Amino acid sequence: MESKTKPQIPLKVDIVYNEQQELLDLVEQEEFVTFMYEGAIAALKQAIRKNKSECVMFDIINYNFKVVLKKDHYKSFLNKAIKHYESIENYPLCSELVTLKSRL
């Protein structure tokens, strides 16, 4: 049986590329976008649970940069995440995100 590990919150990422086109190609890959949404959603859930005024979604280690979302933008992010998961037909997660958004 495969064990699932909890994502690290915030998701720590190293962004390394040789040419700008490599980075542009990466952000177009569905697997990468979904991976980033998974990390961001885990961080957002934790921020909501702890009633934080902001959420650190990503820590870009090699650039010493953090992506932070203010509480008044949580719903907007969730709307985008819902659209993403609708596009890949992950309706159970869409439903979970709609419920999460309604709690805000």
General description of the model:
- The chain is α+β, with helices and mostly antiparallel strands.
- It has one domain (11-102).
- The protein has 4 helices and 3 strands; from the N terminus they run βααββαα.
- Strands 1-2-3 form a 3-stranded mixed beta sheet.
- Strand 2 (54-60) and strand 3 (65-70) form a beta hairpin.
- The longest helix is centred in the middle third of the chain and has 20 residues, at 30-49.
- It is globular and about 45 Å long.
- The chain starts with 10 loop residues before the first strand and ends with a helix.
- The model has no long low-confidence stretch (mean pLDDT 92).
Structural topology:
Elements lengths: L10 E3 L6 H8 L2 H20 L4 E7 L4 E6 L3 H14 L3 H12 L2
Parallel strand pairs: 1-2
Antiparallel strand pairs: 2-3
